[in-house]
Amino acid sequence: MVDRGFALESRLHQREANDLKRTLSPVDSVSERGYFAETSGGDLPVLESEEALVFASNNYLGLTDDQRVQDAARQAAATVGTGSAASRLVTGDTLVHHDLERLLAETKRTDRALTFSSGYAANVGTITALDPDVIFSDELNHASIVDAVRLTDAEVVIYDHCDADDLRAKMTERAEPAEPNGSDDPADESWLVVTDSVFSMDGTVAPLEAICRAAEEVGAWVMVDEAHATGLYADGGGIVQSESLEDRVHVQMGTLSKALASQGGYVAGSDALIELLINEARPFVYSTGLSPPAAASASEALHIARYGDVRERLWENVAHLRDGLEALDLEVLGESQVLPVIIGDRRDALDLAAGLRERGIVAPAIRPPTVPEGTSRIRIAPSASHDEADIVDCLESFQIVGEKVGLL
Ligand code: PMP
């Protein structure tokens, strides 16, 4: 069986032998959850301002205004400080970071997790630290993955969007030795397949099980960016959790800045992976640790996503909106909480977005070059904090403005 993995343990042993291994200082468990005093709950916030309903943000669970999340940030600022003031490896490591990382590892069902100052930094730090020989990347992967890949010396193979068969064909082709009996045997290389799970402009969901199967056939590792899925699926996890793929996906990455209502990124995986990142992920080593209020508010939001009913409310809103938009004969892409309404022409999309805005609905037009020519769209992303009346308001506005600009 070919193994194109990354042999992290032996890399770490080598570091240890050379006395180079860094560690985070051990922190006792935060048994009293001091920074996260339970609150009485309270009403869900209204996301929207008085004059507008926002249907375009990544605040999918509506938690940026949640009293409990805000209290967690306030308490962390008051008790731990507003900033980490140094790299985690110097003096920036706090109990709040460890509490969040424990909850992330529990949610992602991995040995451990590590936070970064952004999701962008998490992708750059992880991909450059792994330093693969070959990277197979979905053609629509996020810019932070694209940039991370550019910073490596890897050979890059782009496969068709969400197409596991194309991925398999490209891996099979690449697995042929360049020269029979030649010294460059691809079986000696480390291979990484990397994909977003939910694609934010198309709402598509990567076929992760099929991708894992294809990768396993050639011994490659799989890394999944769950930025737009974290907190929304099984027990507050992402697509990896909803498909029970924790043991087949080697690197689960995500951000704290969308459903988790905060700022920062994370990677969850094996003990060896996290040790490697602590030692070699430059945006972790050489950047100031996540701020304590950001870590504490993400923890509280994740706690709410795991144990509250907020996810159900989001998915009810998604179903209601999708049904209503399709009843208007609009083409709605995707299979996730992101509902791209395809308009086609960029001018039409702009007119529709402007008309919606006049009626107090914020849902911008997404145009080329962000999306291919002829597929301009309105990207609708409902939030758990929208109520029934908000959804009805959005649908009515689509109908009225759509008719006015001649699209319906
Ligand atoms: N990955 C994906 C798929 C994203 O959409 C984003 C943010 N737009 C990121 C990574 C980067 O996350 P952050 O904003 O936390 O840097």
TrEMBL record:
Pathways involved: Cofactor biosynthesis; biotin biosynthesis
All residue ranges annotated as the Aminotransferase class I/classII large domain in the record: 53-394
InterPro entries, per the entry: Aminotrans_II_pyridoxalP_BS, Aminotransferase_I/II_large, AON_synthase_class-II, PyrdxlP-dep_Trfase, PyrdxlP-dep_Trfase_major, PyrdxlP-dep_Trfase_small
An example Gene Ontology biological process: biotin biosynthetic process
Domain of life: Archaea
GO MF annotations, alphabetized: 8-amino-7-oxononanoate synthase activity; pyridoxal phosphate binding
Requisite cofactors: pyridoxal 5'-phosphate
Pfam entry (one): Aminotran_1_2
Keywords: Biotin biosynthesis, Pyridoxal phosphate, Transferase
EC numbers: 2.3.1.47
Reaction(s) the record says it catalyses: 6-carboxyhexanoyl-[ACP] + L-alanine + H(+) = (8S)-8-amino-7-oxononanoate + holo-[ACP] + CO2
Family: Belongs to the class-II pyridoxal-phosphate-dependent aminotransferase family. BioF subfamily.
Subunit structure: Homodimer.
The protein's name in its UniProt record: 8-amino-7-oxononanoate synthase
Species annotation: Halostagnicola kamekurae
